[in-house]
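Exam revision sheet. Question 4 asks you to relate a sequence to its structure. Input first:
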Amino acid sequence: MKRSFVSLIAIAAAGLFAVTANAQPSPGMGAGSNSNPGICDSSGPHGPQMGGGGGHMGQRGNAKVMLHRIFALDLTSEQATRVRAIQQNVEKQIIPKRATLDVKRIELRELMHQTNVNQRAVTNKLKEINDVRGEIAQLRVNAQLEARGVLTGEQLERYLDASWRPETSQCRTNGPARRR
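Answer key, structure tokens:
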């Protein structure tokens, strides 16, 4: 019994560590590329990036990198408008899921702070947290694929070229690129 309790605590601690580690913002993620008019403006509370600034879910950095690469492809104004619409749509879907995730994390902490921890309840709560995280990840992947669909064949080929790196943006406000 004592061994299973210690195992439960270790699993829960690992889960909490993973959740809090993912909540850290990715370093060096700036405001985006200025290769198109209006890209650097703050058209929304987080500018044009899918996911915005720091906060929940480490996947945000991956979405930002993807969009930085897409915006660096010299998009037409129509393409940039379509990509921004995709970003705004996915963010509207993700925000309530992040709120749900926060509530579930609080509930997990409450379960873990009880004198007699219910292992089944903790396991179920961890599953709920991971399910919501999976839903958020799926929304982001779908948005990335939809944004790639806006590109021309030549742009997509350049985007998929692993050796191609967009130039550092003049809009970047943080990270190592600004510390020259």
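Marking note for examiners. The longest helix spans residues 77-112.
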